[in-house]
Amino acid sequence: MAFRVAMWWILCYAGLSVFALAAPLEDKDRYGVLLDAGSSSTKLKIYKWQNPTTPQSLPKIHLMYNSKSSPGLSTFAHDKVKLREYIEHIITEARSKVPKQSHSQTPIYLMATAGLRFLPANDAKRLMEGTKSLLQDKDFSPFVYTPAGVEILSGEEEGVYAWIAANYLLGFFDQKRSELDSTGVLEMGGGSTQITFVPRDPLYAGEFKVTVAGREYGLYVHSYLNFGFDAITLQLANELAKINKDSKLNDPCRLRGDTKDVTLPDGRQLALTGSGDPDTCKQILSNLLRPATGMDCEPKPCAVGSVYQPSVGDGQFLATQVFTFAPQRLNATGEGNRLDLVKLEDAAYRFCKKSIQEAVAAGFSEKHASGECLMAIYTSALFTLSYGFPKDTQNIKVTSKVGDQTIDWAIGAMLVELSKSICSVTRRK
Tell me, what's the pLDDT at 11? Predict the structure, then answer.
């Protein structure tokens, strides 16, 4: 009897030991939650990966789940109750998508972009402090929180993370290739636009030192706040208001007959009616985008105004996000989604002269048709006049995806957070 009892304890102990060792191995998947707090919404992004096989290799990250909650986080800068309800809804959704047994090992991050960069400093600080207070409460959120995981990204950081994401998805970091073989990224969001690439020339400003998988890269990055799609639309209206003090104005970048009400930063109300005048549209946009010259441009060369930018050279680029819509809708891309800037400008001139009724009859969305006109002319001017791409360039591919994965700064940020021993981002100049 004593022998049987002893054997029972041995077997139970052995069984428990085997279970204790095996349980963590049953589910090798790891999860990360990122709240991408943009200007008009907060995107919940849940990533899944398995730990890398060697200390110097990168994890294979995949976007497992993606959803969007509107309006943007900045809406709740003065309302703690609504802020709590808003974030609680997102956390509840994240709880349901991440396996419960993984909650206590899953990191959570909230990274805000252009929407919060537009807020007054005190409002942005209050909003971040309120958010941190919620996420550190284990009864509110079961995920792993650190204070550094809640932050407002600079536009340049956003650009760097997008560059990391694109080149990670393209497999660049898996190969021993020259940094000059990396792919630059051109992003167009609502509030800002970014350009990020490894230059061939010496860097005098805008440099970030980026380390990925233990290898260092010198990136040029610049973010133009107020030059995103929504922001340039407002800038254009502001320029029109300088020319004519009337509250009812013709908008040359809007299709004929299309109307829009706009509130300027000074509170002035405008009623815009499209005049379908691409020449005037290009002239106004070019004035906003033209590089400075002479002593107003130091160091040289300049891109928009007095902003320094080294030459794009013959490097390869991806134009993502809002940059993709107009070229694709206006059939201005060639094989492999290569952007044809000559075709884009020609198509823009033909399309922008249409009435809103003609555009809708041709299959364009009534809500977005005038935006296609504006973005086609804006993209052409920005890429050639400001960034310095030749009109006949074949080096820009228009896409927001590599395979089935979206090129998104968030995956670059997650990669750096998960691989801090071999990945880092530091501003140098």
Answer: 35
Task: Please count the CA atoms within 13 angstroms of the CA of 189 that sit on its side-chain side.
Answer: 26
The predicted pLDDT at position 383 comes to: 98
Q: Note whether 111 and 410 are within 8 A (CB).
A: yes
- Please write down the long-range contacts of 51-60, taking CB distance under 8 Å and 24 or more positions apart: 52/419, 55/421, 55/422, 56/213, 56/214, 56/422, 57/213, 58/168, 58/173, 58/174, 58/212, 58/213, 58/415, 58/419, 58/422, 58/423, 59/30, 59/415, 59/418, 59/419
What is the per-residue pLDDT across 328-376, written as a single tens digit (0 to 9) for each? Answer: 999 999 999 999 999 999 999 999 999 999 999 999 999 999 999 999 9
Per DSSP, helices labelled H in 219-340 are 229-243, 278-289, 325-329
Cα maximum dimension of the chain: 102
pLDDT, mean of residues 165-188: 93
Q: Distance between CA 71 and CA 51 in Å, rounded?
A: 35
Convert 321-374 into a string of H (helix), E (strand) and C (coil): HHHHHHHHHCCCECHHHEECHHHHHHHHHHHHCCEHHHHHHCCCCCCCHHHHHH
pTM: 0.89
